[in-house]
Design a protein that fits this description.
By secondary structure, the chain is of the alpha+beta class. The protein is 47% helix and 9% strand. The longest helix has 31 residues, at 1125-1155. It is found in: Nucleus.
Amino acid sequence: DDEFYAPPECPVFEPNEEEFADPLGYINKIRPIAEKAGICKIRPPPHWQPPFAIDVENFRFTPRVQRINELGIHTRIRLQFIENVAKFWDLQGQVFKLPHVGGKALDLYGLHDSVRQLGGFQDVCKNKLWNTVCNKLSLPKNFGTVLRQHYERILYPFDIMKSGGANLSLDNVDFFSNQSVSPESPMKRSKRKPVDEPLFADVSNNKELAKLQLFGSAGPKMVGLGLMAEQKGRMRSYMSSYPSEIKVENMEVKKEDIASATVSNPNVSSYLYNLLLPCNNTNVQKNMSHQRGHCKNSNIIKLMCSKDSNDSLLLLCDGCDDSYHTFCLIPPLQNVPIGEWRCPKCIAKECNKKTQAYGFEQARKEYTLQSFGEMADAFKSEYFTKPVHMVPTEAVEREFWRLVGSLEEDLTVEYGADIHVIENGSGFPRMCDAERRQLSSEEEEYAKSGWNLNNLPVQEQSLLRSISGDISGMKIPWVYVGMCFSAFCWHIEDHWTYSINYMHWGEPKTWYGIPREDAMKFEQVMHDSAPELFRHHPDLLHHLVTTMNPATLMNKGVRVVRTNQCAGEFMITFPRAYHAGFNQGYNFAEAVNFCPADWVPVGRQCVAHYRKMKKTCVFSHEEIVCKVANNPSSLDVQVAAVIYRDMLIMMQQEKELRKQLIDLGITKADREAFELLPDDERQCLFCRTTCFLSAVTCPCKPDSLACLYHVKNLCSTCNTTDYVLRYRYSLDELPPILHKLKQRAEAFDTWCDMVNEAFKKTSDKLTLPELKVLLSESEEGKFPENDLLQRLKSVVNEAEICSRVSQQLVNTRKHRTRCCLTLNEIKAFYKQLQNLPCALPHLKQVSEYIENIQDFIASVEVGLGKEEPAMDEITKLLEDSSQFDLDLPQIPLLHQALQQARWLKDVRSHLLLEDPEDEDRAPVTLEQLRKLIDDGISVAPKQSVERAMAELQELLVLAESWEAKARDCLTNKVQVSITGATSITDKAKQIPVALPQCAKLGEAIKKAQAWLNKVKSVQNQDYYPYFEVLEALSHQARPMSIKMEQLALIESQISSARSWKEQTSKIFLKKNSLFTLLQVLNPRVEISSSVGAKWRKRKNRSSIDDQHLEKTNKSNTNLSDSTDPIKVVAEFKEAEKKEMEMLILLRESNDAKALGFFDADDEDAVLYCICKKPSSGKSCFMLQCEVCHDWFHTSCVPLPKLNNSKSRVSILYELKFLCPLCHRSRRPHLTTILSLLLQLQRLPVRIREGEALQCLTERAMSWQDKARRILSTDECQNALQRAVKLAGDTEGVEKNNSRRRKQRTSESHHPDDEKKLCKIERSADVVDEPRNSIDDAIDSNSEAHSTEETMEAAEALAMFATFNHPSTTKSQLESMMLEGDILEVSLPETQNIWRILQATQ
């Protein structure tokens, strides 16, 4: 099936209270619209909500079982074909498996049908059309060989069997290739590569295949997937079970016959013999006259094989007891099959049997509404894996039609369909229910409602009320309990009646409908889709078991509509409107048929159709008509008129048929009350039509009768003169009945005649008011809504519209609006006026109006024929055209000419051709130029227009080319120099078009020239430019679209300078340093709490502090903005002095704070450390910085690094603490700094950090020289040696002198110094837990000291206390120590001075 897509929605009607009061009247009112769709939906007014009258607890039913994929006609024909093929092989004792090709099951039916359409297997092989077969099956072409092999093995023997073996040749079938068939080796195969998939497999344990019975064995219902049918029965050995005596007709075989048969067709395979001829065993037939090895048949005798018979390889047919060799079969059998086996004749007989009609089975379980609802909801919820109310109807609809067309998925559902109301009760309240219980006022109201389906079929306007018996399903409703996917297939109602369905409650029911006009087209599509099914079952569509995807029908040209019927809604199906559908979920519906008056002619057509199809009627159409006609006074006018016409036709047909009986010599006649006979006793023997007016019986078959249409088919032995006519009414009794009906419908018929006569007149027509009088008479007489009345209303409406239009055309109006009418339409309108069945005024004026239009057209053609029509003339013609309210083809031509003139004027204006001396006007832009060209395209072609267009195109191409070049330059697609860019702009200025990209390129050229000037001015200065200046120039040049040759040099210089800065930063700055490189190298010009705030920020990470510190860093970075090196050095010297002065003041302030000399009101005076908190007292040990003399908590700052290799005395002696604010960098050795300065001298760039490093180096070297002079005095040398001796370091002086010598002679520092530096930095970053005393700190690094060492340390400290130094020298050393400690350079002299000063403490 085609992929499903939703058909259009059917009409939906919502009657008001007044319309809803008359059910059949409202249905008749909407019939002209709804009948075109076949079905419609009616939503009752909101207040109409009947109570549910079913006894839920006692309502029990047994549903039908539906297998969804067997409903589809395409699926069923494929399944039945596979079943037939499986049966064919199963009867031969061969198990069957559906092969797989390309990873999916092979469509055997499609393969067979495709080969059949291409001429058959032999033609496909001969013409090499297997690639075409692959295309038809949507398979790659490389599967052609595989398809041929499958067809040879499975389908071609099946084709031969179906055709009876006639006119078939097996030349192309390669069952046996170069093989010698013998009893010893009966199954030597050909050299052809076999198909990968095995033909046979065991499916004995498959439950699905057990559902379908194939002649005593389970056949594949869903064949494939590695399944085979179970073998049953027995296989009898020829020698053990064949009868001892067999009577065989003595036939003589001549060698000449065998030779002639072989010569005439040497390629004939033994399979043709195998189809008809059994092999005879010589042991059994030893007393027979014919020779061993011959095969017999009733008509011919031919030689089956030339080998000796093998008793163990002879098969006995379980159907006809003929015997065959296993190696004479096609395909040959390797072994004797186990189980039943049939010969080819029996196989053909069984496979050609007519299949039984498909039908639904009854479920084995009985349900209540509660149990069925639980099962249905659980099924839907589990299938869609979500609650039932959350499954969209569109998803259920797509899934249903997918399942219908699926061969692999076998989904089974249950449907409580056609449940009788008489036995189980109706969903509507009924008056008969009052016999069992008292009805409430509400129930009584709905029990009498016309929309109650128990009342609708027997209303006055419904002809079913004349049927005395209760016809369940037609006159008595049926109820339906549905679940998800339960379906009702395509069908029409019995006798093509109306039907109405009401949904009491539950999930929606999806409907599909086809209008009556497409019924035959639908039937033809169904027949063409499965001709085999209709060949065996012509009345297949009457069984309600076959459906087809609406998408397939719509693709075949059948109109289909759909809708979802929700709870509380009615569905109406019209006569012969095929409809189908399925349930979205658990619901409860009720349906019944009804027959209003307009159904009568359709019902008669249905009886004729049933007669042709030999379908049994549900009731007699003639009986209903006669019963209604016998009581004309109670009939509605519409019903009386319809019955009168139908009875008139019926009477005429009856006269003709009875006349034919007289011609046949039937003269005997008896009256018969057919209405008293059961329907099955008055059915025609041939067509099964229920007889009422008359029938014919035969003396030899008194219980059988035939309708008058099939008298000749009644009996083949009796003479027609012996037949007896059984009649209900004589021909003389029918006219009086017809006359009474005519009297009732006379007024209506008279009116119809008057209307028909009015429609037939060609002259002296009635006027429009006279037609309106006829229309008013129909309303006063309440005539039925028929086609004639509808036509009259349509004519009156059309005449009124034509009258208004004609008046509009001929009358002069002040304000006219042009309509869309053309001259041909006006002429057609004039012809329409002439063809109206009534006379209208203004007919002559319309004729004159047409003549005026033709004169105007002639003048326009003359004006447009001139080579250059004048503007005034065109304008005048356009003004004249306004008097005609229609659309003339000449008017657009006039507008075209006017448009051409205006466009040419615009071109001249924009290109300054009209006033070239006007210099104030701006040139045309590209947008304007393109707009002129676009406007010119819409202008009608003309020589001047085309010439102007060519000039504009040339100008646009030239302008766009220069604009593209400028754009490429601006977007850096093309690197161009200033000279090249200037050339582009100069040439672009010669074009009289404003080019924005060229203008931008000109601006870029100006910027590039200004940048070059800046570079020249920078390069022409007396000093190298600063790094920041070059970086700014680089930033300016990068976005420029002009190629700058100097930019590469500048960026190279910037890269070298940046590399030097990064290297210097790595040497000087600590990890996660709080200071920038420039801050470290420059003297501290400001001693504030900002650095302490930085240290605290390390723990708090405040965004506000971050912003503040960033500003502080920027403000304290540069000491000077001067470019003169002399000024830079002078400012650095000045900063050194300020740093010393501020440090001295800071020391005094911190010393005073430690001694308690501070203002009591000053809260900040008692705050210490970087944390700015007061002293912790004795609970926490604090360290004093040797530079700023401030005190720091051991928990806030890292402890000084202690050397574990030295003694306890040396540790105490050398212990020195500098706070993080005073010890700001790694303090590299002077040799490392000198190497950086050497690299700096090679750079042609001035770096502020480099200048600061030069000043720092000069300051350090100056301090070093000063310190050496002081330390070289005898007094300091003796003091140093004594201090070293007291500290226990006997080699201190020598080491110091040696270190000093090494530093002066070596330019590179030792790697161990780097390791120590990293080690010190790591220890400084990790803050240990606070210690209570310096002893604890020392003990943590030196865990084992002897008592003697402790005594030595105490003596040393006592000796330090007795050491004195002159106050002048000491003050000088302290000043030198302070200056050395603030230098960010490692110098050995600082350690020597520290030792001397330590000894004086």
